[in-house]
Specification:
Layout lengths: L1 H12 L16 E5 L3 H10 L5 E6 L5 H9 L3 E4 L10 E6 L4 H13 L4 E3 L12 E5 L2 E5 L6 H14 L4 H18 L3 H13 L1 H7 L3 H13 L7 E6 L10 H9 L2 E4 L5 H4 L7 E4 L2 E2 L2 E2 L3 H13 L3 E6 L9 H10 L4 E4 L4 H9 L11 E6 L19 E6 L5 H11 L6 E6 L7 E6 H4 L12 E5 L12 E2 L10 H4 L1
Parallel strand pairs: 1-2, 1-4, 2-3, 4-5, 8-13, 8-14, 9-10, 9-13, 15-16, 18-20
Antiparallel strand pairs: 6-7, 11-12, 16-19, 17-18, 17-19
Family: Belongs to the precorrin methyltransferase family.
Catalytic activity: precorrin-2 + NAD(+) = sirohydrochlorin + NADH + 2 H(+)
Pfam families: CysG_dimeriser, NAD_binding_7, TP_methylase
Length: about 500
Amino acid sequence: MALVESYNTQQDESNKLAVFPTFHKVEGKMVVVVGCGDEAAAKVRLLAQTKAHIRVVSHERPSAALAEAVADADGVFMLSLFNPAYLDGAALVFAATDEEELDREIVEAAREKGIPVNAVDRPELCDFYTGAMVNRAPVAVAITSTGVGPVYARHIRAQVEALLPREAGQLARLADSFRATVGKLMPSGSARRRFWAEFFSGSVAANTFAGETQKALTEAHRLLNSEQDQKGYVWLVGAGPGAEDLLTLRAQRVLQEADVIFYDALVPDAVVSMGRRDATRISVGKRKGTHSSTQTQINQLLVSAAKSGKRVVRLKAGDPMVFGRAGEEIAALREHDVDFEIVPGVTAAFAAAASAQIPLTLRGVASSLVFATGHNQHGDVLPDWADLALNGSTTAVYMGRTVAGKVANLLAEAGLDLSTPVMAIENAAQTKERNFAGTLHDLCNFEHHDSVTGPTLIVIGKAVAHADQSRSLPLSPYKYEKLPAVVAA
């Protein structure tokens, strides 16, 4: 047994921290920074985000950056040789002189007075480290790494900064205003835990992050008065073209908050799995000719889940507002007084253009962009957008592979030159993406590419000639093919 315990202890040591993260109370207290250069300025800017009184001491005149930082922080600058007396009453001390001997003197003086001290870029002298900070006052996140240095900490900070909504501080202040009341009305610890779990991840948080502060306050009162009558919330979320790293940060956040996720057939499993681990996932996919759920049924599912108090994500491929039937779902949610938010996504045309380097608009070539679909609600080719392609527009045709020949005929009949450049992009922005290039003449045979089974976007227009076609396959699977008689005539 002794051997096993010894082994486990050694294994666990690698997971233990060399520092203990804490936050110092500095409100109304003095913090001293000794130095005159940019390192001192960086510490002053960091301290300016707190309610500390800032004193800067240096025997040299401050750099322009430091002078500006001190002024912005309403701090005090003392042009003087360092004197330990300047540290009296300080809560924290920073040595940022860039002179090792002087930094050591400052550290020793601070320790004699029992004041925690940090020597910039001298970790061996530090009593504490300052992490990269994300400020969402009164919420703060500090990240530091003693193993790989500040660069990695700043990298992590950038990710946290993006993931933590700006309104997180506002939500924290709202929570603080309810804390005493919750303590009185809910003496049970389990009841309080349920309340706060719903407060920070339900409709209160959702409305706060959406900028609906009055709704958030109303929802907080409702939650306080009746835990049973919980009001749900719906997000209509664009999943983008399918690549996980093209999902927006807001979409990632709400996926983590959802109790139930209704997702389309074109949304990859890898994106769906980014939802909260215990969220219910329900496929409501619709492909041409196969609908697992009708639009009316989907509307009913969204309303029913929200009415039962659930936080609901309706996950759609691309952008929910571009051929995503979001309008019908919005109407249903409004009709049943369900709060909702739309989270945009990268639509297929933009993803395809980025991958194939197609300038969708180009000065002197294409001054407008048309989004069209190969099918209307009855499955017929749309009759009313073809003439737009004749006026210099770049046309992006969604869901057009199986009717590519009809689209080519339609445009040719309208007068578009048969030599007009065309590209088709299958599985845009995904690892299995394929590009096909050719002309309007070739497009009539594209539907005969039997190997093309993924979602495909067709881009038509003169701007396509400026795309990167170096890795493109032929748009037509046949080397020689005439257009159908209706076009030739």
